[in-house]
Specification:
The complex is a heterodimer of chains A (271) and B (70). Chain A has 271 residues and is an alpha+beta fold. Chain A has helices spanning 2-14, 49-54, 100-137, 141-146, 178-185, 198-201; strands at residues 149-152, 161-166, 169-175, 207-211, 222-223, 229-233, 238-241, 246-248, 260-264, 267-270. Helices cover 84% and strands 0% of the residues of chain B. Classes of the chains: A alpha+beta (271), B mainly alpha (70).
Chain lengths: 271, 70
């Protein structure tokens, strides 16, 4: 009840609009027009980031419109001071009339050269690191040096096959007779299971150097045995000829020829 | 700038040619750096390397061989 009696005082504040449009008749009621007052909240003092943020026109509307007086917010844009970055800008771009295409090469040179030099150095470093780690997987030089053996050929009589140990495997060195050489040279290559001519397997036809491991299942063949006068594997009956080539039996490949070289007439290095 | 501008346009503008140039330069850079560093190392270790002292030892070896042959 009290609110109804007090409504008369509050009436101007509840009004949505306070202007009256005349309809030509005498107004029945003289509207109460409150004094013109500032509709806009005063801008806060921009001393902190938050107060500066609050002054931006991105917040909720701060002005109430009642149809009279200014209702827009005007932010000054002619008297705002903004920083001058010309000290940090490139000289070529400071002139707004200059075409950027004409000075782009000069501006890019430093960036491109530094990036390119960095790329070159990086590629070199990457290659060095990769080479370092990959080469660490290879056998060391001392191991490789020990993995060579020297054989005095003058101690092997003609027609004899001698067995040495080389890198944990038996190594056959055969001093072939002229008869054996001519026989092996004459074998037609296309009749062989693993076609290799005798010249491909020997550097000096007098000397045959093969690894004495049967290519079938890895037994050690017996020298000067078998149907072809070379080697014979007793495990499953593979016959190799005097050039170490498979001629009969289950083995698929010829006896392996290791890398070897003749230092002089009487010295052979295998490995 | 007269030299730089066409180089920039033809080689450095495209990423593909830029990488190609960098890769090619790496070969020369590697060779040059290796040679320079080796030269510095050999200069610092002068008279200590095998190639500097080789002659002193070679004579002895030859003498030894002669002895064994005799």
């Amino acid at each position: 009840m009290t609110s109804v009696t007090r409504a008369g005082h509050l009436a101007p504040y509840f009004k949505a609009t306070s202007s009256v449009v005349s309809n030509g008749l005498k107004p029945l009621v003289v509207a109460h027009t409150p004094a013109e007052k500032v509709l806009v909240h005063p801008l806060p003092k921009t001393s902190t980031v938050e107060s500066l943020h609050g002054s931006l026109p991105i917040q909720g509307l701060k002005a109430r419109v009642n149809g009279r007086g200014p209702s827009h917010v005007r932010f000054a844009h002619t008297d705002i001071q903004y920083p001058d970055f010309s000290a940090y800008r490139r000289k070529e771009t400071q002139d707004p009339t200059a075409k950027s295409a004409e000075n782009v090469d000069g501006r890019q040179s430093f960036t491109y050269l530094i990036a390119g030099a960095g790329g070159v150095a990086g590629a070199y470093a990457a290659k060095s690191i990769v080479t370092h780690f990959v080469s660490s997987m290879a056998a060391a030089a001392d191991v490789l040096a020990l993995a060579k053996i020297e054989i005095k050929l003058s101690e092997i009589p003609e027609g004899k096959s001698v067995t040495f140990k080389w890198r944990g495997k038996p190594l056959f060195i055969r001093h072939r007779t002229a008869n054996e050489i001519s026989t092996e040279q004459a074998v037609p290559v296309d009749t062989l299971r693993d076609p290799q001519h005798d010249n491909q397997r020997t550097q000096d036809p007098k000397w045959l150097v093969v690894i004495g491991v049967c290519t079938h299942l890895g037994c050690v063949p017996v020298a000067n045995a078998g149907d072809f006068g070379g080697y014979y594997c007793p495990c499953h009956g593979s016959h190799y000829d005097a050039s170490g080539r498979i001629r009969k039996g289950p083995a698929p490949l010829n006896l392996e020829v290791p890398p070897h070289s003749f230092v002089d007439e009487s010295l052979l290095v295998v490995g | 700038m007269a030299i730089w501008a066409p180089v920039n346009r033809t080689l450095f503008k495209k990423t593909s040619t830029y990488f190609l140039v960098a890769t090619l330069c790496t070969f020369f850079f590697e060779r040059g750096l290796d040679m320079i560093s080796l030269a510095i190392f050999e200069h610092l270790n002068k008279n200590k390397l095998w190639k500097d002292v080789k002659d002193r030892f070679k004579k002895k070896e030859v003498k030894k061989d002669e002895k064994t042959c005799k």
